[in-house]
């Protein structure tokens, strides 16, 4: 009789632990596909990817950091102007956010060293739920997405990187092409 009770107790404990393990994670991790960054010798560049939120709760990317740059900003292109996206990048529950040239993207400002095609880099993104997402991106040559800045310029000494408005030109192919001036 004692052995049956011990087996029952052990099975009950396993069932409770299994249920608790299922409850310990309130959200599924974000899924990152095709992450890449534009090669650049200096100044700034951008990271692009497809990020899917398989969970039942919206998640917002609110900031980030990387050893590859002094500053990470979340940007958008709206009405032909590239700018920091107020409130970050929302990834609705069950949907995919496309970070792409000419649209939403992750901006790396004040590169710490050249990013050459074939290199890889890692960017840690802060989420509004307190979690982080690590994006490992391959550096690629890309002829579009060359930022053109109008305004204050940048303080590369780690201070305010006030870059003013950023205009976006179209190259006729539908891809956003931006020209980088005065950044080297």
Tell me what you see in this structure.
The protein has 184 residues and is mostly beta strands. It has a single domain, classed as Sandwich (Immunoglobulin-like). It has one helix at 2-23; strands at 31-38, 44-52, 59-65, 69-78, 81-84, 89-91, 96-99, 105-111, 120-127, 132-140, 148-150, 165-167, 169-170, 176-177. The strands form 2 sheets. Strands 1, 2, 3, 4, 5, 6, 7, 8, 9, 10, 11 and 12 form a 12-stranded mixed beta sheet that branches. A two-stranded antiparallel ribbon has the order 13-14. A hairpin with a 5-residue loop joins β13 (169-170) and β14. The chain starts with a helix and ends in a 7-residue tail after the last strand. Residues 7-26 and 147-184 have low confidence and may be disordered.
Secondary-structure map with pairings?
Layout: H1 2-23, E1 31-38, E2 44-52, E3 59-65, E4 69-78, E5 81-84, E6 89-91, E7 96-99, E8 105-111, E9 120-127, E10 132-140, E11 148-150, E12 165-167, E13 169-170, E14 176-177
Parallel strand pairs: 1-10
Antiparallel strand pairs: 1-2, 2-7, 2-8, 3-6, 3-9, 4-5, 4-8, 5-12, 9-10, 11-12, 13-14
């Amino acid at each position: 009789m004692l052995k049956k009770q011990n087996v029952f107790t052990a099975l009950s404990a396993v069932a409770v632990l299994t249920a608790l393990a299922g409850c310990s994670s309130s959200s599924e991790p974000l899924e990152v596909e095709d992450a890449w960054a534009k090669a650049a010798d200096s100044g700034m560049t951008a990271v692009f990817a497809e990020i899917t939120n398989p969970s039942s709760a919206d998640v917002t990317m609110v900031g980030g950091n990387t050893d590859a740059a002094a500053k990470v900003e979340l940007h958008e292109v709206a009405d032909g102007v590239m700018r920091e996206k107020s409130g970050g990048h929302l990834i609705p529950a069950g949907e995919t956010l496309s970070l792409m040239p000419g649209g939403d993207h992750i901006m790396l400002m004040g590169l710490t060293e050249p990013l050459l095609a074939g290199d890889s880099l890692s960017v840690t993104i802060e989420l509004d739920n307190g979690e982080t997402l690590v994006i490992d991106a391959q550096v690629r040559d890309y002829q579009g997405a060359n930022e053109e800045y109008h305004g204050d310029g940048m303080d590369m000494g780690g201070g305010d990187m006030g870059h003013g408005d950023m205009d976006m030109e179209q190259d006729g192919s539908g891809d956003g092409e931006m020209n980088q001036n005065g950044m080297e």
